[in-house]
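[SOLVED] Need 3D model of a two-part complex

Original post:
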Amino acid sequence: MTQSARLVAQGITVSFGQRPVLKDLDVALPTGQLTAIIGPNASGKSTLLRALARLQPVASGQVVLDGKAIHRQGSRAVARKLAILPQSPTAPEGLSVRDLVIRGRTPHQSVLRQWSGADAHAVEQALAATGLAALADRPLDALSGGQRQRAWIAMALAQDTDILLLDEPTTYLDLPHQIELLSLVRALNRDTGRTVATVLHDINLAARFADTILAVRDGAVCLQGPPEQVITEASIQQVFSLPCRVIKDPVHGTPHVIPL
Amino acid sequence: MILRLATLSVPVSGRALRSACALGLCAAAVALLALWVGHYPLALAQLFPAIAGDLGDVAQMVVRDHRLPRILCALGVGAGFGMAGAIFQTLLRNPLASPDVIGFNGGASCGALLAIILTGGHVVAGALLGGLASAALVIGLAWRDGLQPYRLILVGIGASLTLSALGDLLMSRMDVLTAADMAKWLIGTLASRDWQDVALIWGGLAVLGPVVLWASFPLARLSMSDDVTTGLGLALTPLRLGLSAIGVGLVALAVSVAGPLPFVAFVSGPIARCITGGGRPAIGAAALVGALVVTLADLAARMVPLVHLPAGVFTALIGAPVLMWLLVVQFRKGRF
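Solution:
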């Protein structure tokens, strides 16, 4: 069902000081799918995402993008294939939404050619896709939390990459905004065939929106597969040490976890 | 708005362009005013013949040999400090940063004092060596897997305080007359600058200016958090080192002509950003603000009767209230 994976981690190990965070971890992101990375706090899920995006150096093993080790490719070349929205990103005060989105075009620009028709097109498309066209000239700091997060996603979209990685994009958002944001991510994946991986805290939202669940515990991948197969009472107990009942969501038909 | 020139295409904001034009006009007006007024009275009608003409009279000597080089130096020195300040503030993501933060000015002062004590001269060479050595030391001490802004600021503040105490100590070892002379140089002065100084500062700016233009593209992007910048494909550490070197080069140039004029590098960036808006680094506008502040400060220093005050006394006196006024206007608009 899937083409061969373009982004693969091969036996990667990451340590913070003495503490190993990822231990000899292997994973492949299914191409064209929306993957949700779940796991308890300090399980290494954000570190895994950052390592996949070459933001986190690995002590051993390697991340491979399109058949070539990611750290052997130019950072700019990688940025044309892979966009990452990190946790709590910051921009200078007063920067407008449009200027933020324009910065997403950086890997396609150069000092001499700082603007092109393709840039203009990608920026307008990213603003339209995130529903921010009307707010484009507002300063980023004048937006609500949900709008601001959409603006950052618009920046990553303007980067125009086949692979999009999101590190806890729903943190600090209320439930309606979480749903809105994940619906947007889902639509981006469906409409453009982008490969998307996102770290999520909420298992039920992950089950509802993702094609593939990737569960991480103690620096290792312990489950990977479609939500219907992977999310069971036994697996949630195994990953989160949480006794629960799993029922079928009466509306969406996806697995729904009820903690006991 | 897109600026196009052959293969070049650069987006420019209308507001930034308008404010740069306004600042440029202000700087030109102040420069002309400074040429006109002074201890030697000059009728306005005499001014242009004195600059361009071939009269060979006293008016021409005053304007061409004394005022004009001094004012051109002030403009260039201000532009250098202004750009360096804007670069460091953007690079360190801190509006309060300035070259002082990485210990350049403190090092320059100590270097100048040491040169006087050890060799009896070579003030400028000593200042440059001291400034570059302390900047290199601060960057070296703050280095760990790259250059982190907050580490650089903390190490730099420590170094600056140490160097300023060392400067006081060196000063106390001198005889009173040399110390008084040095005090003036250490505050920063543009008195009796000649065409050689003009050639030095403007020649240096002609070399560094294009480099700054080149660097402003990555610099604007470095103002976002590290992960975002890396994700966009920029190499943080080489860019930070390169931009620090450019900033230090600009300060070294300005200090070698006018001494460590205080506050100009600090104040120009925030004033420029208030005027141009939009969260961009505004290096060009900061250069113009710096030029304006130093020219005004030097004019004020020349206008005080009887005593010869160094321009450095007035840079903060002029720059600080302007900055405060701009910030208060912004508070009132609810921007903060």
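Edit: The longest helix of chain A spans residues 175-192.
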